[in-house]
Amino acid sequence: MALDNGPEYIRQLLKNWMKQYSIEWANIQLSNPQHNAYIERYNCTVHDEWLVPC
């Protein structure tokens, strides 16, 4: 599973939950959104449309 490290996420709590259920954590290469373009696009949408007021 790959996730962004952005400030809007609670990385450590999620890592603890994943460890509890034996889910493996994997990071994508920094500055290379092509490794997970779908998630990067979703994160952009979350940031632009949900977190930043118009």
Task: Give a quick rundown of the structure.
With 54 residues, this protein is an all-alpha fold.
Oligomer: single chain
Structural class by helix and strand composition: mainly alpha
Domain count: 1
Strand content: under 5%
Q: What is the H-and-E element order?
A: HH
Radius of gyration: 13 Å
- Kindly state the number of beta strands: 0
Distance between the termini: 31 Å
Shape: flat
Q: What is the mean predicted local confidence, pLDDT?
A: 76
Reconstruct the topology from this structure.
Layout: H1 11-20, H2 37-51
Could you describe the 3D structure shown?
The protein has one domain. Helix content is 46%, strand content 0%. The chain contains two helices and no strands. It has helices at residues 11-20, 37-51. It starts with 10 loop residues before the first helix and ends with a helix. InterPro entries: Integrase_cat-core, RNaseH-like_sf, RNaseH_sf. This is Integrase core domain.
